[in-house]
Amino acid sequence: MPRDPAHSDEAHMWSMLQVLGELDHICSGHDESDIHSDIALQRAVERCLEIIGELANKVSKETQDLHPTINWAGIINQRHVIAHTYDGINYDLLWIIISKHAPILRDQLKVILPQEPEDPLPENTQ
What we know:
This protein has six helices and no strands. It is mainly α.
């Protein structure tokens, strides 16, 4: 059975890149102290990292193996930690992810995905 192009590895990685841009926008103008005091910022960051981790988990093992410099397991595991840790999230660690690791991941994905894919779900023209 052929793969649905809307659920292709490339589409998932493009979505990861989009959410990384959203994360950058959300965190713009904030510093590390804000992640400890701003509940809305905390929840927005948590949600973005959950989505990125879920998308990474949907990328096939074959594609992940083609790009071993991306820390697929770490991204996916961080999603599980955020999704299942309700009262003990380490916001210092999240800030490190936001400020150091997210830009690296964004650059890695840009190298893998040099061209914008065609719309996987074109408008119905009938």
